[in-house]
Amino acid sequence: MANGFMRAVLEQLQNGNLIVDVSQLLEAAPEATVNFFQDFDANISRLESILAQQLGRSRPRLRFRHIPSFLLHAVHHMKELRHDLVGCFLTFSGLVASMSSVKVAEFTRSFECSCGARKVVEAPVAEVRPPEAGCCGGCGGDSFKDLGGAMIDYQEIRLQDTGLQNCSHAQVVLCGELVSSCVPGDLVVVCGVLRARWPNWAPKKRLMVQLILDARDLHQLHEAPRRSLVAMPPAADPWQQRRQMVTSVAAHLHGLEVPKLAVLLVLLADDLTAPRQEESSRQHSHLLLLGDPGTGKSQLLQAAGQLAPHCVMTSASGTTRSGLTFSCVRDGAGWNLEVGALSMADGGVCCIDEFRHLPKEEKTALYEAMEQQSISVAKSGVACQLRARCSIIAAQSFVPNGQSLKELSGLADPLLSRFDLALALRSQGGNDEDVIASILNQCANSTNDFGCQSPGQVELDQLKGFIVAAKQSTLAESAYDASLLLEAYYRKLRRGSLGAVFSPRVLESLIRLSRAHARLMQHGSVQLEDAIAVIFLHQVAWKSHSPETEQVLLSHFGPGCPEQIQRLDMSSDITCRKDYEVVEGAVLWCLGFQDLKSEEPKDTGGRLKGGGDRGHSEEKPSSIFEGRAFVPQIRRKGKIKERSLFSPPERCATDQGSWLNAQLAACCSSRVLSQMEEMPQKSELPKKQQ
Known about the structure:
Layout: H1 3-12, E1 19-21, H2 22-28, H3 30-38, H4 40-55, E2 63-65, E3 73-74, E4 89-99, E5 103-113, E6 118-122, E7 144-160, E8 169-175, E9 187-197, E10 210-221, H5 238-247, H6 257-268, E11 287-291, H7 297-307, E12 311-315, H8 321-324, E13 326-331, E14 334-339, H9 341-344, E15 349-353, H10 360-363, H11 366-371, E16 374-379, E17 382-387, E18 391-397, H12 405-409, H13 413-416, E19 421-425, H14 432-444, H15 460-471, H16 480-496, H17 504-520, H18 528-545, H19 563-567, H20 577-590, E20 633-636, E21 639-644, E22 647-651, H21 660-665, H22 670-678
Parallel strand pairs: 1-2, 3-4, 8-10, 11-18, 11-19, 12-15, 15-18
Antiparallel strand pairs: 4-7, 4-9, 4-14, 5-6, 5-7, 7-8, 9-10, 13-14, 16-17, 20-21, 21-22
Helix pairs in contact: 2-3, 3-4, 6-17, 16-18, 17-18, 18-20, 20-22
């Protein structure tokens, strides 16, 4: 080997680290580095033997990083692994589906001939049989004395392709420092030499050679393979641009704008910028789709799988608890841990179809995974915790003769409370003429596929890139009026709950969905319009499965309300700025904000605590979106109450007056406020609407 190449390798190994940076080797000796990787399998043994002599230690096992693409063979799918690639240096990515226990394997073995000559034989990690001495190079004899050998840590993992249509697997061998460098469910990138492992020979039995990868480096990916980051161009009306993205989800389905919006919010709910080890609550949202047969539930699941950077699709029909969580498989004297669909979907989305057919005992296994985003393992002497940081989108048909959400789904309250949204898709009702026209138009154009995009919609690849870019965006501190509105809506749901249970998980769900909507609208923080849109979505979802309950608060939209907004069905989506102004006025009115005065209280130092211009106030109220308590002040019967989400209510010592209208005036247009003044008072409405 070239002196420059050896000198560059020795310089990198001076600190005792066995990692070699190939980019530095190319700068020091480019020609020698290229020749080394062209015949890597033969050159690596010679290089490690020379290093063992010069370093005066046992033979090291080098790791190589930052390898340029022209020096290796990239495998896009594991089904491309063939016998003609044996001996080549490869790299590919996949999910760790199973992992064996750590074992000790023989690395090298020394022999001494009867003539006194010694011989060191390498034991390849791919071989099952022990190394043999062969013949002596001096005397030609075959009588050797076994002097023992060097041992090395050994572990095997099984990788699975991440694509929805690919179920290929690859066996990977980890040795030395690479042992225990990953856990089941991790998405990893591995590079190494492809080898053929021969089994022990048996008479009258056909030999089946297994292809394995002798790993030389492995590092984790904290997310699915990155796509090009795409930001949507600025639009004159952001709501129309939002509608284009919503209709691009499962473009062949008509009249399901609300479920499409829910799918987009679930995909955007995860905050990739938040440190994983500091998460105090889950970042992922869960969605439950209920409906009659033929209402497009499975099509929405497939659309979510196509848009998600990483997705695992499964069906509850025939699925067991171990298929969703984990299983332990006997491996000789030990056990192998194989992960299920939830751990394999870590960092992405797990779509479960036919959720109703999942046995009751199996559904209890989802409790920890949906809330704590982890799976605890304590079985067959194996005790560990697997990550399951994924969003769950479940679809199922209605339970016959059901009236409420619990009866329609057949799910227990602890499981229902873990879903951020539950939508009921009914075959009766709605605008059937538009659906029929949409289907006939698609069938008339035989050249187009059902998944093609119509004019005015966003291309699928562009929408995928936008989702990845939006999840990596950082949201600033949220607007105070948005926090106040969500708190008031949650308190009203709690006061009106008779048969339903509204736990603090409802408020956490509203916060997650509001942050996701802010990313969808490309806002720098959660604004008032994000809170309004999420409250309206929550009302539509609640009316879809429980239309007669007191939780349906929206009943009056004022004059000039569009027809799709008044219906409150699966097509009731905000399509333009005018629709939003109508919805905003209705939401503010139903929460009782129109009775508040526009006075601004002052603190003891004479400075404003709040006001329309928050940017110039010296004291800025904290936000529930940042995990801190805030104290909104609302006038009730001539008295001021300070309320906090994390402390009991206390009465103020002085009557400072109401100032919420000044807060809302900064975000609401004059048209909305005028609509609020024209709306009838509560005393003028019938008792049913009150």
